[in-house]
Amino acid sequence: MLDSKMKSYPPLIDQCKSRLDPCHIPWSSYGGEGHIIAECQLPLIDLRALIGHGSESERHACEAAIVKASSDWGFFQVLNHGISQELLEEMRREQKKLFELPQEKKVGCRLLNNSYRWGTPTATSLKEFSWSEAFHIPLTNISEDGCFSEEFNSIRKVMEKVAIAMSDLARLLAGVLTETLGHKNGLFLDEGSCFLRLNRYPQCPFSQEIHGLVPHTDSDFLTILDQDQVGGLHLMKDSKWVSVKPNPKALVVNIGDLFQAWSNDVYKSVEHKVMANSKVQRYSMAYFLCPSCESMIGSCKEPSLYKKFTFGEYRQQVQQDVKKTGRKVGLPRFLL
């Protein structure tokens, strides 16, 4: 029997029990598919030359490193990215205050336009369950009337600054990736479809093998992640799970499904997950770069590996698959 003082907040244990009793299942059969063989250091790229502080040759070298990491790993880290550490730390302080609110307040009010969620309502087994809570916020909602009360003005102001800074960085990186493949016009991006996600992974008192976030790929062009130093992010490399070593000075960038389809598999959208920690909670914040729902995602060159689809069609298919099977299928649905 679990000590009531150890119960996770939000009530993740209660939600787990509604699927399977955690006291009577072999946990090793759930979170631990594939063994973690090593702690890896992601490619580390200094963006100083890219944001105007280097020679032309240094800028070209930086661009080449971004392209190589996006092709080989689908993940990389960036330093000197133009977003101040002070702003990121301020965002984390506000984020922690937000998650420390009483559960009924997070769930029951219209805070952040009802963007709060926890656990995995669609899960049919613990293998599909995410031990986490999050605010999933479209950028357009941050400045909407009614999205924040007077009580949350401080986090609103910080989020507006973070959204602008993350958007600038994401577009800079996307520009490198598109121009390298010969496209000067860039992508059809829409600020209204981009969003921030504030994550908290509470300590899991009865297992280190349950997912904080189930294995998945991101359904966007690219994602920028700011994480604390707890660790827990794992990615698939050479058909094996590896653990990503946190770097306190770097942001993590990963390629999403849309960039893989658009690049005709030159850039890789890599499966990744977060593992829960039995002793300490973990925080992260992610920015997702997306097009409008009507944007057509076609290949940048022929012959294409994928049939054309809109971002809206892609999201709808993902949601249908998750509802029916408990997992995301993603790009294989759109192969020719």
What's the CATH class label?
A: Mainly Beta
CATH fold-level assignment: Jelly Rolls
Write the CATH homologous superfamily: B-lactam Antibiotic, Isopenicillin N Synthase, Chain
Q: Roughly how many Å apart are the termini?
A: 52 Å
How would a textbook summarize the main sheet? 8 strands, mixed
Proper CATH architecture: Sandwich
State Rg. Answer: 20 Å
> Please, what is the average pLDDT?
87
Number of domain units: 1
Q: Into which percentage range does the β-strand content fall? A: 15-25%
User: How many β strands by DSSP?
Assistant: 15
- H/E series, N to C? HEEHHEHHEEHHEEEEEEHEEEEH
Poorly predicted spans: 1-7, 22-34
Strand order of the largest sheet: 2-3-11-8-13-6-5-4
Shape designation:
globular
Please render the helix and strand layout as text.
Elements: H1 12-17, E1 39-40, E2 44-46, H2 49-53, H3 56-72, E3 75-79, H4 85-99, H5 103-108, E4 116-118, E5 133-138, H6 139-142, H7 153-180, E6 195-201, E7 211-216, E8 222-227, E9 233-237, E10 240-244, E11 251-255, H8 257-262, E12 272-275, E13 282-289, E14 296-297, E15 309-310, H9 311-325
Parallel strand pairs: 1-10, 2-3
Antiparallel strand pairs: 3-11, 4-5, 5-6, 6-13, 7-12, 8-11, 8-13, 9-10, 9-12, 14-15
Give a description of the structure.
Belongs to the iron/ascorbate-dependent oxidoreductase family. GA2OX subfamily. Keywords: Dioxygenase, Iron, Metal-binding, Oxidoreductase. It holds the Pfam family DIOX_N. This is gibberellin 2beta-dioxygenase. The structure is a single chain. The chain is α+β, with helices and mostly antiparallel strands and 336 residues long. It has a single domain, classed as B-lactam Antibiotic, Isopenicillin N Synthase, Chain (Jelly Rolls). Helices cover 30% and strands 21% of the residues. It contains nine helices and 15 strands. It has helices at 12-17, 49-53, 56-72, 85-99, 103-108, 139-142, 153-180, 257-262, 311-325; strands at 39-40, 44-46, 75-79, 116-118, 133-138, 195-201, 211-216, 222-227, 233-237, 240-244, 251-255, 272-275, 282-289, 296-297, 309-310. The strands form three sheets. Strands 2-3-11-8-13-6-5-4 form an eight-stranded mixed sheet. It has a five-stranded mixed sheet with strand order 1-10-9-12-7, with no helix packed on it. It has a two-stranded antiparallel ribbon with strand order 14-15. α3 packs across α7 (153-180) and α4 (85-99) crosses α7. The radius of gyration is 20 Å and the shape is globular. The protein starts with 11 loop residues before the first helix and ends in an 11-residue tail after the last helix. The model is unreliable at 1-7 and 22-34 (pLDDT under 50).
